[in-house]
Amino acid sequence: MTSIADDHQTDSVLAARADARAQAERTSEYMPYRPASSSPVVPKGVDRDALVWAETVAPGGYTHKVIARGTRLRLDDPTGTACAHVVVFNALETNERLNVADTIKIPWQAYLGAGHPLLSGDGRALATITSDTSGHHDTFCGTSTDESTTAKYGSAAPEGPSPSGRSRFLLAAAKHGLTGRDLPPSVSFFQGVRVEPDGALTFLGSAGAGAHVELVAELPLVVLIVNVPHPLDPADDYLVGPLVVHAWPGEPTLPGDPQFTATPEVNRAYLNSIDYAEARAL
Fold this sequence. Notes:
By secondary structure, this protein is an alpha+beta fold. Helix content is 21%, strand content 24%. Strand 5 and strand 6 (125-132) form a beta hairpin.
């Protein structure tokens, strides 16, 4: 015999299920699109059905993904106010990660742009910038900390209106079993910094709305992306716009590509990456 209490409990469960299922078709301005082919925008020349990642990252938000070797990763700044702080790890051995010092040293260039590889501390190219319409990037400052964010905006709480880049990276890293000690300094796209002759850092800001950066994964990668204001941004308010992310399959940098032998140092980095990949049948 079913009691009134049992009937009420069943009704509550069914109502909760019905309510949950009713949310399935709801969308948000900021969300990952699954399947990726359901993205409302697709980069020109890219087959919608080939997309493996499509997402709009909210201001103050973060995202993360494991991508295969050869994957093309595109970041778009539709409003001219995004700031994509990026860290990448070798997905097979996450103790190998972005090394900003080597990323500057190996190409003999501190300013990121098309053709610039992102290096690990093991002498391998993890990714390469293949296209860049912004030119306003940063390898010097990393992302914002809780201390700097609290001092400027009054709070750095991850759940608040002005989270720090560091707190967002910690959340993204945790999704892959990584902790704060695993996080290296990041690079930033879409908000530029230049070094003056006296060593001072000058914030250049954005190149404007509509810029994009495209990279190719030279190895399988864990990608962490945080979208928060640049640490040197002089604005008093926490101002940052949406960041659009797309990824699709492609090929890594291989012999015959002009970038492969751009310099002797870069050539060795690509050869090291290929050697690592071939030993693992990638």
